[in-house]
Prior knowledge:
The chain is α+β, with helices and mostly antiparallel strands. It is built from 8 helices and 3 strands, in the order ααααβββαααα. It has helices spanning 4-7, 17-31, 56-61, 65-72, 119-132, 137-140, 145-151, 160-182, and strands at 85-87, 96-104, 107-116.
Amino acid sequence: MVLPLLQDAAPLAAASGWEKKRRLELIARNVYAYGGRAAPCPRRTTLSPEHQHPGHAQETGSFGEAFLAHALTPQNLGALPNPEGFARPQRDCGDYIELYLRIQDEVISDARFLTEGCVQVVACGSALTCLIKGRPVSQALQVDAELIQAELGGLPPQHRHCAELAERTLKEALRDYWSRRRSPWRAVYPRR
């Protein structure tokens, strides 16, 4: 399903640095809302070029095709009912990633995420789920922030914390999975 806002994403490559950033923020604000409902994020604002911090135009120009693909059309977006592993760590700024894992025979058969945050967090959540889906749990443990950044073609230094949030979310979801395996009675109680 193509959302109406994504149909206008084609001219994004021709946009200037600050205009590209503004469009990506609008897409993140309107598309990647919790539970599929559009919910604007009040702490996200777009500044005109003269009010942006130094180096902002260079920052937006550094996003590659892999990043834009994950940001504009995120993979595995949504929730799983009764997941075997779940986590929702939150950063101080309020950004979070909810990760849902379906694990069968020690292999991650499905991974989905929901998020509220900047477009970099959305891209990191999408890249994370693509990296771990179909992998054994032991291999998924080796996925770290550096590998997530490599999947995205790199992130500017001021946004590397988004990949670290994705890594932390994965580790907490796997910890939750192991905790549920040790205490099977917990599986009876639904999440959320």
